[in-house]
Amino acid sequence: MIERHTMVRADYYQYYALAAGGDFDTSSVDMANDGILAPAEQGVRISTGVQLGDVDLTVRVLDGPLSLPAENPGVIASACTVHLPHGRLAITDWGGPTVFEHEFGRPLVCALLVQVEGRDEALDHRYDQVQVPPERHLLTLSPVPLSGGRWRTARMDRAGAALETFTDHVASAG
Questions:
Q1: For a FRET experiment, which of 10, 22, 55, 120 has its CA 20 to 30 Å from that of 98?
Q2: Quick one: pLDDT at residue 102?
Q3: What is the pTM of this model?
Q4: Phi and psi (nearest 5°) for 99?
Q5: Total Cβ atoms within 10 A of residue 171
Q6: What's the pLDDT at 174?
Q7: What is the arithmetic mean of pLDDT over 28-46?
């Protein structure tokens, strides 16, 4: 397992994870937004509570399949698959620069899971100059495709509820 901590700059409440050298149209995913992820085949827009600012990002790259946090009722998370025709995934600010890149060594379909914390606080203070703890995201990558292609916790924060347009893959709250 690889783990790296970095900061990613969100702009207009978003940043991206995409196939390096691939084809990802960021404007084509609005109707796929589940409040956290808005995926297309070769990339995903990741929604934030911060309108313009830094998100504290931890990236984990696994050697095996994802373990979805379905048993933890306190987690807010979403997962999807991303096609990597060149075997590389890049995490970028909107419009640049790459803050993390991983080379899987071969073309593949990977699974991507994002767990979020602190989005509501970031959203509440997006225009005032109040210092709040940074929004935190844990992004986990797996070289094993996600069964079913998409998954999301039933629980959602206020920041994500305002963005939801697609929820067919949301886990039951039962």
A1: 120
A2: 98
A3: 0.92
A4: -100, -15
A5: 14
A6: 44
A7: 89
Q: What are the residues whose beta carbons fall under 8 Å from the beta carbon of 151, sequence distance 6 or more?
A: 68, 78, 79, 80, 169, 171
Buried b (16+ CB within 10 A) or exposed e, 36-57: bbbbbbbbbbbbbbbeebbbbb
pLDDT at 9: 93
In sequence order, the β-bridge partners of residue 137 are 57, 116
pLDDT in tens, 153-166: 999 999 999 888 77
Q: Which of 58, 47, 61, 43 is nearest to 11 (CA)?
A: 47
Check residue 22 and report its DSSP letter. S
Residues 6 or more apart whose Cβ sits within 8 Å of residue 88: 19, 20, 21, 101, 102, 103, 104
The CATH number that applies at residue 117 is 2.60.34.30
The number of domains in the chain is: 1
- Residue 26, in any domain of the structure: yes
Work out the average pLDDT over 117-144: 89
- State the CB neighbour count (10 A cutoff) for residue 157: 18
Contact between 77 and 113 (Cβ < 8 Å): yes
